[in-house]
Design a protein that fits this description.
The complex is a heterodimer.
Chain A: H1 18-24, H2 31-44, H3 52-58, H4 67-85, E1 89-90, H5 102-106, E2 108-120, E3 123-136, H6 142-151, E4 155-156, E5 158-161, H7 163-168, E6 171-172, H8 173-177, H9 185-213, E7 218-222, H10 233-244, E8 250-255, E9 273-278, H11 295-299, E10 305-311, H12 321-335, E11 341-345, H13 354-376
Parallel strand pairs in A: 1-4, 3-6, 5-7, 7-8, 8-9, 9-10, 10-11
Antiparallel strand pairs in A: 2-3
Helix pairs in contact in A: 1-2, 2-4, 9-10, 12-13
Chain B: E1 2-5, H1 15-25, H2 31-51, H3 69-74, E2 78-85, E3 92-98, E4 126-130, H4 132-138, E5 140-141, H5 147-167, E6 172-176, H6 178-182, H7 187-204, E7 208-212, H8 222-227, E8 232-236, E9 253-259, H9 269-283, E10 287-292, H10 301-308, H11 310-320
Parallel strand pairs in B: 1-10, 3-5, 4-6, 6-7, 7-8, 8-9, 9-10
Antiparallel strand pairs in B: 2-3
Helix pairs in contact in B: 1-2, 4-5, 5-7, 9-11
Classes of the chains: A alpha/beta, B alpha/beta.
Chain lengths: ~375, ~325
């Protein structure tokens, strides 16, 4: 597909609308939720006047709508949200997903959920242990993708949690348990490598194959854990390769809030990765140049595409289009090739209200347009 | 030679407490009811510690959001900053931001220590505090002080805390120092660490002081660790080959972090006993303190409880001279 400079793309999940949350629970929409539904529908047109689910929700008949239909509406909302904001590559805002770990693990055999671990304060995550050989119960995200494919006007891009992150967020009982003697660092690393590769080969790869067979062409592999252990960047790459080798799709790797320098050069061995979609805006400003790390790609001669994070997803302040343009221009200057840049938020915008998220996306699109104009007509 | 066993850091919250604290954040329950559950759970942790012969008692430090928070929230000069990764784990702390040279608030820490282990005898409880080097190194220092000066100052302030807690009957103080082995200090920084612990030692006035290191190999830092004026030096056996440690601890006690909180696999008591015997033969410590190598709250409650049973079993295996 031929594109102009600086195409834009989504990168992750959106905040769940109140009407969807209430609707999924079979609760009637309160005034706030109804108002939210109507306001956004006027702008995005995600529900047609003949949509019976929408009519039932708005008519205080939530109990008559099954949760699946509400999720369909939520997915349409997410899709139109991105499309109307003007993005070139879109998904459904991960409207059907609760989180990115538990769902994939529940599609696999060989895992047992053990309980919650505190992340920070009163936030927790459920953690599983691999107690047997990893096997895929059934490929996942397929129905979700089918729905997006059927309804997307723009090109869809599917996000899926990567093998390294699934392994890092689990306890490795089975593969580590096969090692004899005291489990020192070298032993743990050997067992972790096996674990990552097994998840990649036995679970992620067949899921990717099934998605590709259904027409999925652009796939983002999310590896938020990639920077957790700096000496395991090679395992991130190895897992990526084991999952994607020989598969016919455009793959990107999304990493955020990590010390990227520690990933070089080992991560660059991820052969099938066509695009590095990383967070930069969060570390830009207050005297810091968040895009300086791009020089590492030049240093190592890596010329792949960059998914350039230009929106800070942790701040309500909406980036002006000029700031977005400046960030794109700075990145283009460092990379020496503007054609390598895709423009996106740092990460999923679910941390922000829908209203702020939309404004940010609109300005991102406008900023990309300004940058495009600048390159067509150099100042 | 005496072998002790005790908890060395925060214990996980059990599922009912996870649910209650989540509900609290969502406004579905009251602070009073959650406080009551905290107290009950603290009792439960102490009961487990007693049943397994773990002493001094800790109560699990269940209420603390992270090791720095009681200080960041009560000491002048600090504000509570962004969520920040806790070393190479998928857990996080809120980074303290230091805007001016810190001061302490008398009485503030004592009120935040777990209640049950000090009832009725604080002498049987262990106070777990951040080490001055880790504290200074992990905060966002906007105070204008150098890392060296700040490390020393925090040592003096923590020493004052120790002094105050001594008057309440506490007699064992453990300092969490993962940064000492993850990023060992050199030159003036190492001198500042020594000065900080001298200030703590002066304030301790005969109390047992422990430096507990984890998340890194202690061998490179061991020459410095061995010189610190503390009673016990703890190392993480998942990272450190204890038999490779150089001598020089002058018959002081060594702590062996023999439970790895990064895995749910339960260690073999015989393997732990074998390491204990090797350390005895090589380093001739005055005592050995067994405990988790790092914070057990990297595990859910049930696996953490399972692991704790290894501690008394390992002591039994050592005493019985049992081999696999």
């Amino acid at each position: 597909m031929s594109r102009g400079l600086f195409p834009t793309q989504e990168i992750g999940s959106l905040a769940r609308p109140r009407w969807q949350l209430l609707g999924q629970r079979g609760e009637p929409l309160d005034a706030k939720a109804r108002d939210e539904f109507e306001k956004w529908n006027a702008r995005l047109g995600f529900a047609t006047p003949t949509d019976t689910s929408a009519a039932a929700l708005l008519g205080s008949r939530s109990r008559q709508v099954d949760a699946g239909s509400v999720k369909d509406l939520g997915a349409l909302f997410g899709l139109r949200f991105f499309e109307t904001a003007g993005l070139d590559r879109v998904y459904d805002g991960e409207a059907r997903r609760i989180e990115m770990y538990e769902h994939p693990i529940r599609q696999m055999k060989g895992f047992q959920f053990l309980g919650h671990v505190r992340s920070f304060d009163n936030k927790y995550y459920l953690k599983a242990a691999a107690t047997g050989e990893v096997k895929l119960e059934q490929p996942y995200h397929l129905d979700e993708f089918d729905f997006v494919k059927a309804h997307a006007v723009k090109e869809p891009k599917l996000p899926i949690t990567g093998p390294y992150t699934l392994a890092d967020w689990s306890y490795n009982e089975y593969y580590l348990g096969r090692e004899k003697g005291w489990k020192n660092r070298a032993v743990r690393r050997r067992a972790q490598r096996e674990f990552v590769v097994e998840i990649a080969r036995r679970a992620i790869r067949p899921t990717l194959q099934a998605l590709i067979e259904r027409g999925c062409r652009v796939i983002q592999i999310d590896e938020p854990a990639a920077g957790t252990h700096p000496d395991e960047a090679d395992l991130v790459a190895e897992g990526f390769n084991a999952a994607t080798d020989g598969l016919d799709a455009e793959f990107s790797m999304h990493i955020c809030f990590s010390d990227y320098r520690s990933l070089f050069p080992a991560l660059l061995e991820a052969k099938r990765c066509r695009q590095w979609a990383w967070e930069f805006a969060n570390r830009d400003g207050d005297g810091r140049d968040g895009y300086e790390v791009l020089k590492m790609f030049q240093e190592y001669g890596d010329t792949r595409e960059i998914g350039l994070g230009v929106l800070d997803v942790h701040r309500d302040e909406v980036e002006r289009p000029e700031l977005v343009r400046d960030r794109i221009e700075r990145a283009a200057k460092i990379l020496g090739d503007p054609a390598r840049i895709w423009v996106n938020p740092d990460c999923g915008l679910r941390t922000r209200t829908l209203s702020i998220a939309y404004q940010k996306l609109e300005n991102m699109v406008a900023g990309a347009r300004l940058a495009r104009t600048g390159f067509d007509n150099p100042r | 030679m005496k072998i002790h066993a005790s908890l060395t850091g925060p214990f996980p919250r059990p599922e009912p407490l996870v649910a209650a604290t989540r509900d609290l954040d969502r406004g579905r329950t009251t602070q009073e009811s959650v406080d009551e559950l905290f107290a009950r759970t603290e009792n439960e942790v102490v009961a487990i510690e007693r049943r397994l012969g773990l002493e001094p008692l800790t109560g699990g430090y269940l209420r603390w959001a992270d090791v720095f928070r009681p200080f960041a929230e009560t000491w002048p000069g600090f504000t509570v900053g962004p969520v920040t990764r806790w070393f190479e784990t998928n857990t996080f702390y809120r980074q303290p931001i230091l805007h001016a040279p810190p001061e302490r608030t008398p009485g503030a820490l004592a009120s935040q220590l777990p209640v049950v282990p000090r009832t009725p005898d604080a002498g049987k409880a262990k106070v777990i505090l951040p080490g001055p080097y880790t504290f200074a190194g992990l905060l966002d220092n906007r105070s204008g002080e150098t890392l060296e000066a700040l490390t020393h100052r925090l040592g003096r302030l923590l020493g004052e805390e120790v002094k105050e807690l001594r008057t309440l009957g506490y007699a064992v103080f453990q300092f969490q120092e993962p940064l000492l082995v993850v990023k060992p200090p050199k030159g003036p920084r190492a001198e500042a660490v020594s000065a900080a612990y001298r200030a703590i030692a002066e304030a301790a006035n005969g109390a047992t002081t422990i430096v507990w290191t984890y998340f890194g190999d202690a061998a490179p830092a061991f020459p410095l660790l061995a010189k610190l004026p503390v009673g016990v030096i703890g190392v993480d056996l998942a990272e450190t080959d204890a038999t490779s440690l150089s001598d020089g601890i002058d018959r002081r006690a060594i702590g062996l972090g023999c439970l790895d909180p990064r895995t749910t696999l339960v260690e073999e008591a015989y393997d732990v006993a074998a390491i204990v015997r090797k350390v005895q033969e090589k380093l001739h410590p005055s005592a050995i303190w067994l405990g988790p190598g790092g914070p057990l709250d990297l595990l859910p409650w049930e696996p953490a409880v399972r692991k704790l049973h290894v501690l008394p079993a390992a002591i039994q295996a050592v005493n019985a001279g049992a081999d696999r």
